[in-house]
Amino acid sequence: DTGVSQNPRHKITKRGQNVTFRCDPISEHNRLYWYRQTLGQGPEFLTYFQNEAQLEKSRLLSDRFSAERPKGSFSTLEIQRTEQGDSAMYLCASSEQGTDTQYFGPGTRLTVL
Amino acid sequence: AQSVAQPEDQVKVAEGNPLTVKCTYSVSGNPYLFWYVQYPNRGLQFLLKYITGDNLVKGSYGFEAEFNKSQTSFHLKKPSALVSDSALYFCAVRDSYYGNNRLAFGKGNQVVVIP
């Protein structure tokens, strides 16, 4: 399967703990995106990378959130000092430069107790 | 600003009947429009897109959508619905100005196809 992969698929954590999610994009895609989806809502944009450069960040991305893509391949999204409001599905997508279609991974469902 | 409205929460249709899922958008410039489908506990699966050209675009699984600039709409259609089409459908838009890479999604429409 050469689609976008995300790990873990599910994460349960206690409030105040740090969590990290990983996204592996489609191999030839140099653009990578993170979105957050809460129940009953559509995905909301968090951040965007072109290669290793983080070019866009949403105001939703508070200072507790940090994303990296160190070698322009996989990306990590870290949430520090998690809060119950962080409970959501975190979706990663990738696209090839020059095309407009973003392909999504299966998501990581975070539950903060 | 860019935004999408999907006015109906749920669309119910009998199997074999035509299916329409409505979407209207708002952008400052030219829209790039997308439809995605989501099955339970899964990510979003791309169905089709409109970038430029013919207003009627065809996509996966027999779906098509019509871009209507005057009505700022991009409704998704399927001539004959299947029970397996039951899922959550999202419309998304991206304003085409340089440097904008984020998609804005609607709330989604739950499609229920009744056998």
Structure characterization notes:
The complex is a heterodimer of chains A (about 110) and B (about 120). With about 110 residues, chain A is mainly beta. Chain A has strands spanning about 5, 10-15, 20-25, 30-35, 45-50, 55, 65-70, 75-80, 90-95, 105, 110. In chain A, the strands form two sheets. In chain A, strands 2, 4, 5, 6, 9, 10 and 11 form a seven-stranded mixed sheet that branches. In chain A, strands 1-3-8-7 form a four-stranded antiparallel sheet, with no helix packed on it. In chain A, a hairpin with a 6-residue loop joins strand 4 (about 30-35) and strand 5. Chain A is globular and about 40 Å long. The mean pLDDT of chain A is about 95. Chain B contains no helices and twelve strands. The relative contact order of chain B is 0.34. Classes of the chains: A mainly beta (about 110), B mainly beta (about 120). The interface of A and B includes residues 33, 44 and 48 of A.
Return the structural class of chain A: mainly beta
Secondary-structure-derived class of chain B? mainly beta
Rg of chain B, please?
Answer: 14 Å
Estimated helix fraction of chain B: under 10%
Mass-distribution shape of chain A: globular
Radius of gyration of chain A: 13 Å
Proportion of beta-strand residues of chain A: over 45%
Mean pLDDT of chain B: 94
Work out the helix count of chain B. 0
Given as residue ranges, the uncertain stretches of chain B (5+ residues, pLDDT < 50) are: none
What is the terminal-to-terminal distance of chain B?
41 Å
Could you give a short account of the major beta sheet of chain B? Answer: 6 strands, mixed
Instruction: Tell me the total number of β-strands of chain B.
Output: 12
- Discrete helix count of chain A: 0
The sequence of SSEs of chain B as H and E is EEEEEEEEEEEE
